[in-house]
């Protein structure tokens, strides 16, 4: 398969590229290093050192063909698709931080406009150049919000005033970032309806971990963010444990979120690539299990204690976000299981590995300490 990965320099993009080259696929990638730049802009950095893209490519034996550019630029996307003519495009090239999108009007607009534009560029370029390309688009479980009913995969049967229909499940993003993904989903749905494009829209949960089989094999790290803007919750808790500071559970900690390991995330994307839809808009809820934030904090503290014998304090800081603190949560994830997904790495498999990788990077962690406490508030 010829696969074009947009956002190949990112946390998920790079390990996905390694998995695909390892399986013998032809891999093309594009990035404009926005995450590296934006992360420096908020005085943060990857807690685990990563190589430059040139170094990365060299270490894979030049198996990745890389294009530098911005996915929100239509000309760049049209040229890229014409030059590579891929079988599949994996779109991971969007601004991916909810807190970043909530800093100011500028960052809200930047997130909404660039994210939505990038997906529209892909839709039109695929329609105009090669209509059978499989578009794999990274969305978010956060698109659904936390409704007081079960969450299906994209669509559900509904009865209202005596009539029934099969409709998109309501989407209720809780940040401008999540709203940008909601808009993308509707745009992709429409593109499929009008032009019959082949689309897999992936509602991914919160990813954790430092490693995959190929990261180990090629000895090539992926980025790992721990700051209040780019770090995701479990990765942040693990770094806080290593720094000996209390874990920052936001609010009551009864908020529930869907999670999966980095290894499982890459496996799921790989399964999706191997099972292209035909003229279909297909939604996958991509996660392994859902947990409360208190459970996640407890799992990090428990693993830290069994590795070091030391207790870690769990603190409850004022929630900087506007989110339900205590709610029903029951999302489905049957579609990935139907195409063969089985969990490979559980929380307790992965947390000790993360803690040990972070211990080996403690000097870098100490330098990033000031970026940890939440400063970006939703209702500022
Ligand atoms: N949280 C804490 N303490 C922290 C950081 C976060 O309690 O130190 C809480 C947040 O309040 C939230 C939950 O943990 O309730 C998840 O926050 P997060 O920062 O780990 O994840 P989120 O902002 O939702 O976004 C991340 C990725 C995004 C992806 C999304 C999947 O950055 O790209 O789409 O996870 S999901 O959460 O399912 O929407």
From TrEMBL:
Lineage: superkingdom: Archaea
UniProt domain NAD-dependent epimerase/dehydratase: residue ranges: 3-285
One protein family per Pfam: Epimerase
SUPFAM superfamilies assigned to the protein according to its UniProt record, in alphabetical order: NAD(P)-binding Rossmann-fold domains
Family: Belongs to the NAD(P)-dependent epimerase/dehydratase family.
NCBIfam families in the record: UDPsulfquin_syn
Protein name: NAD-dependent dehydratase
């Amino acid at each position: 398969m010829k696969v074009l990965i947009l956002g190949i320099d990112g946390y998920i993009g790079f390990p996905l590229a390694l998995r695909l080259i390892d399986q013998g696929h032809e891999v093309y990638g594009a990035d404009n290093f926005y995450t590296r730049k934006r992360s420096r802009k908020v005085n943060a950095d990857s807690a685990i050192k990563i190589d430059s893209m040139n170094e990365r490519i060299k270490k894979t034996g030049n198996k990745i063909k890389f294009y530098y550019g911005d996915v929100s630029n239509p000309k760049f996307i049209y040229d890229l698709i014409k030059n590579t003519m891929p079988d599949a495009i994996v779109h991971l090239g969007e601004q991916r931080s909810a807190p970043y999108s909530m800093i100011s009007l500028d960052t809200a607009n930047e997130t909404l406009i660039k994210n939505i534009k990038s997906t529209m560029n892909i839709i039109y370029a695929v329609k105009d150049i090669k209509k059978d390309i499989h578009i794999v688009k990274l969305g978010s479980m956060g698109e659904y919000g936390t409704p007081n009913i079960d969450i299906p995969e994209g669509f559900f049967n509904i009865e209202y005033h005596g009539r029934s229909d099969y409709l998109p499940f309501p989407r209720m993003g809780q940040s401008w970032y999540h709203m940008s993904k909601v808009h993308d989903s509707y745009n992709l749905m429409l593109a499929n309806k009008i032009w019959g494009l082949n689309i897999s829209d992936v509602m991914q949960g919160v990813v954790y971990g430092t490693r995959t089989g190929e990261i180990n094999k090629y000895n090539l790290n992926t980025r790992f963010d721990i700051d209040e803007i780019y770090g995701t919750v479990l990765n942040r808790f693990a770094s806080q444990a290593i720094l000996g500071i209390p874990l920052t559970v936001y609010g009551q900690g009864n908020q529930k979120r869907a999670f999966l390991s980095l290894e499982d995330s890459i496996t799921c994307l790989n399964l999706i690539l191997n099972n292209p839809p035909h003229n279909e808009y297909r939604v996958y809820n991509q996660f392994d299990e859902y947990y409360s934030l208190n459970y996640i904090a407890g799992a990090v503290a428990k693993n830290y204690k069994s590795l070091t014998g030391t207790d870690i304090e769990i603190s409850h800081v004022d929630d900087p976000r506007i989110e339900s603190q205590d709610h029903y949560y029951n999302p489905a994830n049957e579609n990935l299981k139907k195409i063969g997904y089985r969990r490979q790495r559980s929380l307790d498999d992965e947390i000790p590995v993360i803690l040990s990788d972070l211990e080996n990077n403690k000097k870098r962690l100490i330098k990033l300490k000031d970026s940890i406490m939440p400063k970006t508030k939703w209702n500022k």
